[in-house]
Fold this protein.
Amino acid sequence: MNLTLKIWRQPSATAKGAMATYAVQDISPDMSFLEMLDVLNEQLNARGEEPIAFDSDCREGICGSCGLMISGQAHGPEVTTTCQLHMRSFADGDEITVEPWRADAFPVIKDLVVDRSAFDRIIQAGGYVSVNTGSAPEAHSVPVPKPDADRAFMAAACIQCGACVAACPNASGMLFLGAKITHLGELPQGQPERSARVVKMVSQHDHEGFGGCTNVGACSLACPKEIPQDVISQLNQDLRHALRTSS
Protein backbone atom coordinates (compact mmCIF):
# COMPACT_ATOMS: atom_id res chain seq x y z
CA MET A 1 0.00 0.00 0.00
CA ASN A 2 1.13 3.53 -0.81
CA LEU A 3 -0.37 6.27 1.34
CA THR A 4 -0.26 10.02 1.83
CA LEU A 5 -0.23 11.14 5.46
CA LYS A 6 -1.10 14.62 6.68
CA ILE A 7 0.16 14.77 10.25
CA TRP A 8 -0.02 17.48 12.89
CA ARG A 9 3.49 18.65 13.84
CA GLN A 10 4.02 20.83 16.90
CA PRO A 11 7.51 21.00 18.39
CA SER A 12 6.39 21.96 21.90
CA ALA A 13 3.39 22.91 23.98
CA THR A 14 4.03 26.62 23.45
CA ALA A 15 5.00 26.47 19.77
CA LYS A 16 2.64 26.96 16.85
CA GLY A 17 1.69 23.76 15.05
CA ALA A 18 0.88 22.95 11.42
CA MET A 19 0.05 19.99 9.21
CA ALA A 20 2.92 18.28 7.38
CA THR A 21 2.57 15.89 4.44
CA TYR A 22 4.47 12.60 4.13
CA ALA A 23 4.36 9.73 1.65
CA VAL A 24 4.85 6.14 2.76
CA GLN A 25 5.26 3.20 0.39
CA ASP A 26 4.99 -0.57 0.57
CA ILE A 27 2.93 -0.61 3.75
CA SER A 28 1.62 -4.08 4.59
CA PRO A 29 -2.14 -4.24 5.21
CA ASP A 30 -1.34 -6.45 8.22
CA MET A 31 0.57 -3.67 9.98
CA SER A 32 -1.07 -1.81 12.81
CA PHE A 33 -1.48 1.93 12.45
CA LEU A 34 1.29 2.53 14.98
CA GLU A 35 3.62 0.16 13.14
CA MET A 36 3.00 2.20 10.02
CA LEU A 37 4.00 5.33 11.96
CA ASP A 38 7.11 3.46 13.16
CA VAL A 39 8.06 2.87 9.53
CA LEU A 40 7.60 6.57 8.75
CA ASN A 41 9.72 7.53 11.76
CA GLU A 42 12.51 5.21 10.61
CA GLN A 43 12.47 7.01 7.28
CA LEU A 44 12.55 10.41 8.99
CA ASN A 45 15.45 9.32 11.20
CA ALA A 46 17.35 8.09 8.14
CA ARG A 47 16.90 11.53 6.53
CA GLY A 48 18.02 13.32 9.70
CA GLU A 49 14.54 14.73 10.36
CA GLU A 50 12.71 14.89 13.68
CA PRO A 51 10.54 11.78 14.15
CA ILE A 52 6.85 12.17 14.92
CA ALA A 53 6.03 11.99 18.62
CA PHE A 54 3.04 9.84 19.55
CA ASP A 55 1.95 7.95 22.66
CA SER A 56 1.94 4.16 22.98
CA ASP A 57 2.71 1.59 25.63
CA CYS A 58 1.23 -1.90 25.65
CA ARG A 59 0.04 -1.88 22.02
CA GLU A 60 -2.52 -4.48 23.04
CA GLY A 61 -5.60 -2.26 23.32
CA ILE A 62 -5.41 -2.24 27.12
CA CYS A 63 -3.66 0.91 28.35
CA GLY A 64 -5.50 3.55 26.30
CA SER A 65 -2.44 5.73 25.69
CA CYS A 66 -2.40 5.43 21.89
CA GLY A 67 -5.36 7.68 21.06
CA LEU A 68 -5.20 9.59 17.77
CA MET A 69 -7.73 11.41 15.63
CA ILE A 70 -7.55 9.65 12.25
CA SER A 71 -9.32 11.32 9.34
CA GLY A 72 -11.74 12.95 11.74
CA GLN A 73 -12.54 9.83 13.75
CA ALA A 74 -11.30 8.98 17.24
CA HIS A 75 -9.00 5.94 16.88
CA GLY A 76 -9.89 5.71 13.18
CA PRO A 77 -12.59 3.96 11.12
CA GLU A 78 -12.90 0.88 13.33
CA VAL A 79 -14.29 0.69 16.89
CA THR A 80 -10.99 -0.21 18.50
CA THR A 81 -7.87 1.44 19.89
CA THR A 82 -5.36 3.02 17.50
CA CYS A 83 -2.77 0.34 18.24
CA GLN A 84 -5.25 -2.37 17.24
CA LEU A 85 -6.32 -0.57 14.05
CA HIS A 86 -4.79 -2.33 11.05
CA MET A 87 -3.88 -0.81 7.71
CA ARG A 88 -6.28 -3.15 5.90
CA SER A 89 -8.95 -0.72 7.10
CA PHE A 90 -7.61 1.69 4.47
CA ALA A 91 -7.22 1.47 0.69
CA ASP A 92 -4.13 1.83 -1.45
CA GLY A 93 -3.64 5.50 -2.35
CA ASP A 94 -5.65 6.87 0.57
CA GLU A 95 -4.87 10.25 2.08
CA ILE A 96 -5.03 9.99 5.88
CA THR A 97 -5.13 12.92 8.29
CA VAL A 98 -3.63 12.28 11.73
CA GLU A 99 -4.18 14.71 14.61
CA PRO A 100 -3.97 14.67 18.41
CA TRP A 101 -7.08 14.74 20.59
CA ARG A 102 -8.60 18.21 20.29
CA ALA A 103 -9.80 19.48 23.69
CA ASP A 104 -8.85 22.34 25.98
CA ALA A 105 -8.54 19.84 28.82
CA PHE A 106 -6.02 17.80 26.76
CA PRO A 107 -3.30 20.33 25.80
CA VAL A 108 -0.81 19.23 23.15
CA ILE A 109 2.65 18.43 24.50
CA LYS A 110 4.35 17.65 21.20
CA ASP A 111 3.07 16.53 17.78
CA LEU A 112 0.41 13.88 18.50
CA VAL A 113 1.04 13.65 22.26
CA VAL A 114 -1.47 15.31 24.60
CA ASP A 115 -1.54 15.73 28.36
CA ARG A 116 -4.41 13.59 29.70
CA SER A 117 -3.55 14.05 33.35
CA ALA A 118 -6.92 15.80 33.80
CA PHE A 119 -8.44 12.32 33.90
CA ASP A 120 -6.02 11.36 36.68
CA ARG A 121 -7.03 14.38 38.73
CA ILE A 122 -10.71 13.49 38.33
CA ILE A 123 -9.94 10.01 39.70
CA GLN A 124 -7.93 11.53 42.56
CA ALA A 125 -10.91 13.74 43.41
CA GLY A 126 -13.13 10.79 44.23
CA GLY A 127 -12.78 7.78 41.95
CA TYR A 128 -11.82 5.34 44.68
CA VAL A 129 -13.17 3.56 47.74
CA SER A 130 -11.72 4.00 51.22
CA VAL A 131 -11.57 0.44 52.49
CA ASN A 132 -9.05 -1.49 54.54
CA THR A 133 -6.37 -3.16 52.47
CA GLY A 134 -4.72 -6.47 53.15
CA SER A 135 -5.56 -10.03 52.27
CA ALA A 136 -8.53 -10.48 49.95
CA PRO A 137 -11.80 -11.31 51.73
CA GLU A 138 -13.79 -14.42 50.92
CA ALA A 139 -15.42 -13.79 47.53
CA HIS A 140 -18.89 -14.70 48.80
CA SER A 141 -18.72 -12.70 52.05
CA VAL A 142 -20.42 -9.69 50.40
CA PRO A 143 -23.16 -10.90 48.05
CA VAL A 144 -23.44 -8.92 44.80
CA PRO A 145 -26.31 -9.66 42.41
CA LYS A 146 -25.01 -10.84 39.05
CA PRO A 147 -26.68 -8.02 37.05
CA ASP A 148 -24.95 -5.49 39.32
CA ALA A 149 -21.61 -7.26 39.03
CA ASP A 150 -21.92 -7.48 35.24
CA ARG A 151 -22.72 -3.78 34.97
CA ALA A 152 -19.83 -2.87 37.27
CA PHE A 153 -17.41 -4.92 35.15
CA MET A 154 -18.78 -3.34 31.97
CA ALA A 155 -18.21 0.18 33.29
CA ALA A 156 -14.79 -0.72 34.71
CA ALA A 157 -13.65 -1.65 31.19
CA CYS A 158 -13.04 2.07 30.51
CA ILE A 159 -9.33 2.57 29.74
CA GLN A 160 -9.26 6.38 30.00
CA CYS A 161 -8.11 6.76 26.39
CA GLY A 162 -10.07 9.99 25.89
CA ALA A 163 -11.81 8.97 22.65
CA CYS A 164 -15.13 10.05 24.16
CA VAL A 165 -13.76 13.56 24.71
CA ALA A 166 -12.21 13.74 21.25
CA ALA A 167 -15.42 12.60 19.55
CA CYS A 168 -17.73 14.90 21.52
CA PRO A 169 -18.47 18.28 19.87
CA ASN A 170 -18.40 19.78 23.37
CA ALA A 171 -15.23 17.95 24.44
CA SER A 172 -17.14 16.52 27.38
CA GLY A 173 -15.68 13.80 29.58
CA MET A 174 -19.04 12.61 30.85
CA LEU A 175 -18.83 9.08 29.38
CA PHE A 176 -15.52 8.52 31.14
CA LEU A 177 -16.90 10.08 34.31
CA GLY A 178 -20.13 8.09 34.10
CA ALA A 179 -18.18 4.85 33.70
CA LYS A 180 -16.14 5.54 36.82
CA ILE A 181 -19.20 6.56 38.85
CA THR A 182 -21.19 3.53 37.68
CA HIS A 183 -18.58 0.85 38.26
CA LEU A 184 -18.08 1.93 41.88
CA GLY A 185 -21.73 2.73 42.51
CA GLU A 186 -22.89 -0.77 41.53
CA LEU A 187 -20.83 -2.43 44.26
CA PRO A 188 -21.36 -2.54 48.05
CA GLN A 189 -17.86 -1.18 48.67
CA GLY A 190 -18.73 1.98 46.77
CA GLN A 191 -21.83 2.93 48.75
CA PRO A 192 -20.42 4.85 51.77
CA GLU A 193 -18.84 7.56 49.57
CA ARG A 194 -21.30 7.41 46.68
CA SER A 195 -22.83 10.87 47.12
CA ALA A 196 -19.58 12.65 47.97
CA ARG A 197 -17.81 10.88 45.10
CA VAL A 198 -20.07 12.11 42.32
CA VAL A 199 -20.08 15.71 43.56
CA LYS A 200 -16.27 15.83 43.84
CA MET A 201 -15.63 14.18 40.48
CA VAL A 202 -18.13 16.32 38.56
CA SER A 203 -16.68 19.45 40.18
CA GLN A 204 -13.16 18.42 39.12
CA HIS A 205 -14.38 17.55 35.60
CA ASP A 206 -15.79 21.06 35.19
CA HIS A 207 -12.70 22.66 36.76
CA GLU A 208 -10.46 20.92 34.22
CA GLY A 209 -12.29 22.62 31.33
CA PHE A 210 -14.26 19.73 29.85
CA GLY A 211 -17.53 20.70 28.16
CA GLY A 212 -21.04 19.75 29.18
CA CYS A 213 -22.94 16.75 27.84
CA THR A 214 -25.77 17.44 25.36
CA ASN A 215 -26.53 13.75 24.65
CA VAL A 216 -25.11 13.72 21.13
CA GLY A 217 -23.99 10.12 21.62
CA ALA A 218 -20.74 10.38 19.65
CA CYS A 219 -18.82 9.45 22.81
CA SER A 220 -20.31 5.97 23.09
CA LEU A 221 -19.96 5.30 19.37
CA ALA A 222 -16.24 6.12 19.50
CA CYS A 223 -15.50 4.21 22.72
CA PRO A 224 -13.20 1.25 21.95
CA LYS A 225 -14.62 -0.60 24.97
CA GLU A 226 -18.22 0.14 23.92
CA ILE A 227 -19.22 1.79 27.19
CA PRO A 228 -22.96 2.53 26.79
CA GLN A 229 -24.29 6.05 27.01
CA ASP A 230 -26.62 5.16 29.88
CA VAL A 231 -23.74 5.44 32.35
CA ILE A 232 -24.20 9.21 31.89
CA SER A 233 -27.81 8.79 33.01
CA GLN A 234 -26.55 6.97 36.10
CA LEU A 235 -24.11 9.81 36.75
CA ASN A 236 -26.87 12.41 36.50
CA GLN A 237 -29.14 10.36 38.76
CA ASP A 238 -26.43 10.03 41.42
CA LEU A 239 -25.63 13.74 41.18
CA ARG A 240 -29.26 14.80 41.57
CA HIS A 241 -29.64 12.53 44.59
CA ALA A 242 -26.42 13.82 46.17
CA LEU A 243 -27.41 17.47 45.73
CA ARG A 244 -30.95 16.87 46.94
CA THR A 245 -29.89 15.07 50.13
CA SER A 246 -27.15 17.59 50.95
CA SER A 247 -29.44 20.62 50.75
Observations:
- Residues 116-131+142-246 form a domain with the Fumarate Reductase Iron-sulfur Protein; Chain B, domain 2 fold (CATH 1.10.1060.10).
- The first strand starts at residue 3 and ends at 9.
- The chain has two domains: 3-110, 116-131+142-246.
- The longest helix spans residues 230-246.
